[in-house]
Specification:
Order of helices and strands: HHHHHHEEEEEEEEHEEHHHH
CATH superfamily of the largest domain: Butyryl-CoA Dehydrogenase, subunit A, domain 3
Domain Acyl-CoA dehydrogenase/oxidase N-terminal: 7-120
Strand content: 15-25%
InterPro entries: Acyl-CoA_DH_CS, Acyl-CoA_Oxase/DH_mid-dom, AcylCo_DH/oxidase_C, AcylCoA_DH/ox_N
Pfam families: Acyl-CoA_dh_1, Acyl-CoA_dh_M, Acyl-CoA_dh_N
Distance between the termini: 39 Å
CATH architecture of the largest domain: Up-down Bundle
Domain Acyl-CoA oxidase/dehydrogenase middle: 126-227
Number of strands: 10
Radius of gyration: 21 Å
GO molecular function: acyl-CoA dehydrogenase activity; flavin adenine dinucleotide binding
Length: 396
Amino acid sequence: MSPFELSPDHETFRKSVREFALAEIAPHAAQWDKDHHFPTDVVHKMGDLGLMGLTAPEEFGGMGEDGDFTSLCVAIEEIGRVDQSMGITLEAAVGLGINPILTFGTDEQKQQWLPDLVAGRTLAGFGLTEPGAGSDAGATRTKAELVDGEWVVNGAKQFITNSGSEITSVVTVTARTGTRPGVDGKPDRAEVSTIILPSGTPGFTAEPAYDKLGWHASDTHPLTFTDARVPEANLLGERGRGFAQFLATLDDGRVAIAALAVGCIQACLDMSVAYAGERTTFGVPIGAKQGVAFQVADLEVMLEASRMLTYKAAAMKDAGRPMKEFKQAAAIAKLYATESAVTATRIATQVFGGYGFMEEYPVTRFYRDAKVLEIGEGTSEVQRMLIARGRGLPVE
């Protein structure tokens, strides 16, 4: 089996997730989008299905050897095929919520947080982006000072997924915890660490949810910290390694976002093929017209290429390939799949014509949802920078 093919077990798993998505999400997605409703009951059901535990060991309620990163990408793709909001909810719950604690947490931290997160009873957020520190994550201004055995956190984060829902239990936050001397004549640099902040901590506030262009059914908030105090033991991983930890987390997340984009492209292809076969002009289906048929062909090519790049990167992750190789594959998959998804929604909307501009058709929801795929988990510009660096260019 080549790394570009899914195993029979993965395909069986895909079918089960597809059935779940069609039964539990598809019938309600349009209304959730219209109402800006975050369906916590569906999060619980995804947990019951085992989707939150696909990368977690059995000791925390995860799938253990029965799950892997590729399985997570399959699940995200299939959920995202019917609703991008629930797709990003799953992606962020596992890749950004569970994985940092699973990868860098102490035994005590894992025992405290992972069982409920893996079961889908609770959610965790990933607090990296700030008003002045998005792609430039090293410009973090949130501070955490160690005072009498407690971290005192002050600052703000923005665009944080799964951070303010009624079932959010914790957010991991990057913060400046000091400075480190520069080397080779360079100026001192910020020491960035990761702090675990439980929901309900005095001084930790999830501000009102954003009014977004898309992803209306996902939970996204700005966060503020005003003398928020947590025990010293809430340091996640090694002090001063927060920036490196979050970069590693984002490498995985880029592949997962690529999988979400693949689901979006698949939906656009499905909708376009169905509509082109039903809608008639001048006595024939519009799919008989080369202008439409060729657009559908372009969707097929984008889908296949995006899927290949995404699952190649996922297979590299599962095989433990060198990090340098995986980082390059992740950036390539994320860049191509997300930009293709944005193009795919534009093509699908064009195939639908005037109906593509009407909210009663799901193509409009996918059109609105797609744009952020080029921004979250590292913008397209950042991916191009990483890819060029991977080829040895000193690009800044």
